[in-house]
Amino acid sequence: MDKILVINPNSTEAVTRGIDEACAPLRMPGGPAIDCVTLKEGPPGIETQQHVDSVVQPLLKKIKEVEGEYSAFVIACYSDPGLHSIREATRKPVLGISECGILTALTLGQRFGVIAILQQSIARHLRYIGALGVAERLAAELPVGLPVVELSDASKTFGRMVEVGRRLRAEHGADVIVMGCAGMARYRKPLQDEVGIPVVEPTQAAVAMAIGRVRLGWETPG
Asked: What is the distance between the alpha carbons of residues 219 and 87, in angstroms, rounded to a whole number?
C-alpha cells in the first residue's frame, strides 16, 4: 500500500498528535496510509528564521532515510522549511503546508486572511506570500500572540483565534481564513463555525494534494 509521511519539524509531540487527528478524515479504505511523525532534532516551536533554517538538514536526512518506504512527503510547518531542497533530493511529491494552504484558500474565496502565532512570524510569512506571487489576494495576517507550545491549551488559544478570525473578516474583508501554524489543527471546524467563513487547515490541504498526486502517479520533475 502507498504511504504518505507527514513530518512535524518541531519537537512538540502535542503538535504531532493534533496533526494526526486532523488527518483522520483523509484516511480511507484503499487510499494511501498517512503516517505522522515528529522531528526529534527540531526546536519546540519553529518561530524564527533561524529555527526554519536549523531543521532543513535534519529534514533532508530523515527523508533520505525513509524515502523507499513512502510515496509522498508533507512538511507540516507553515514556513515550509527545506521545501525546495527536499524537492531536489527526491522525485516523489513533496508538499509544504503553507503553499498548499494558501493555494487551497484561493479556490475558496477572493481574499484570504492568515492567523499567525506571533507578531514576529508575520514578516517571514509575508516574504513567502510575496514569493508565491499572491500578495494582492492577501487581506491581512494577524497574530494570536501565543508560542507553539501553548497552542494545545484550548482555554488560551481558541478564544483568541475566534477574535482574530472575526477581525480578519470584519475589518480586513477576508472571505476565507488560513490557519498559520500546524499546531492550530484541532481548532479548524469550531473556528469555521464561529467565524462563518471557510477555514483552511494547511496540513489537511497538503495531505489532500499528496493523496491526489499519489493516486494519479505524479512525480516531481527531475
From this structure: 10
